[in-house]
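Hi everyone,

Forwarding the result from last night's run.
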Amino acid sequence: MLTGDIAKQYLKRFGSASTLQIARKLVEDHPLIFPGTEQSRSIVRYYRGATGKKNRAGLKDDEFVRSLEDAMAQKYNPYGLPDAVNDNWAPVTLPFKSGRGLIMADLHVPYHDVEAVTVAIQWAQNNGYTDFVLLDGDISDHYTISRFEKDPRKRLMMPFTSGREHDGSQVLPSMQTPF
């Protein structure tokens, strides 16, 4: 089988590369034999043993089969980006076991919209979302050190809409809009 032989050669040559990278290289180098990335990717996955137990059991040559641990250990990094500083982050346990709460993000205090925040809090109180409030990122605004345009005359002005036109009711008719 010609496609299998070529795929195995590329697996030997580029074994540490991701399945998608190898598939793209096969299409680039042999477009008549590998007409599409998905077909090539399926062939590479087959020889790597990533198409299920039944197919893995049928492989005559398991040279390229990676264990699940090896496959998961290889980070997806197709652009060769440098490793990130990775302190061992521990999961955060919130001080409540369960419940319904209000999650607000991007307040940008002191440039926040007092009316919008008030309406959100009132909605939460009226609908029983009172077990907790979680403020998720960009709570305060650091205008003086911002990299964004500070002159409001030069900012891109978008037409104001109430949001009712795009409230999601067309996609999820059963969805309740709080405002």
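The chain has a mean pLDDT of 78.

Cheers,
N.
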